[in-house]
Amino acid sequence: TGAGDSFAGGFLGYLDSTGAESPSGDDLRRAMVFGSVMASFNVEDFGTERVRCLEPLEVDQRLSEFKSLTHFTEVPVAR
Predict the structure, then answer these.
(1) Helix (H, G, I), strand (E, B) or coil at 44
(2) What is the DSSP letter of 54?
(3) Are the beta carbons of 33 and 41 closer than 8 angstroms?
(4) What is the 3-state secondary structure (H, E, C) of 19-79?
(5) Tens-of-pLDDT digits for all 79 residues of the chain?
(6) pTM of the model
(7) Does residue 41 contact residue 48 with C-beta atoms inside 8 Å?
């Protein structure tokens, strides 16, 4: 599907955009979210067609949706 490649591109692209030589934990978490968002667009169509025609507003909206789906204060550890 190319989702892994899109994830890697989004992840590494985000880290590069921070300009940090040594990314913080927050940078890595944000990069994981951005990579996941890019992968989610990729699986909506064949090849790179969907990602190729993305608009920045679409990415911003998906990031907001992703955040609302994954924002929680605590995750209990299964025992």
Answers:
(1) coil
(2) -
(3) no
(4) CCCCCCHHHHHHHHHHHHHHHHHHCCCCCCHHHHCCCHHHHHHHHHHHHHHHCCCCCCCCC
(5) 689 999 999 999 999 999 999 999 999 999 999 999 999 999 998 888 888 899 999 999 999 999 888 766 776 777 6
(6) 0.81
(7) no
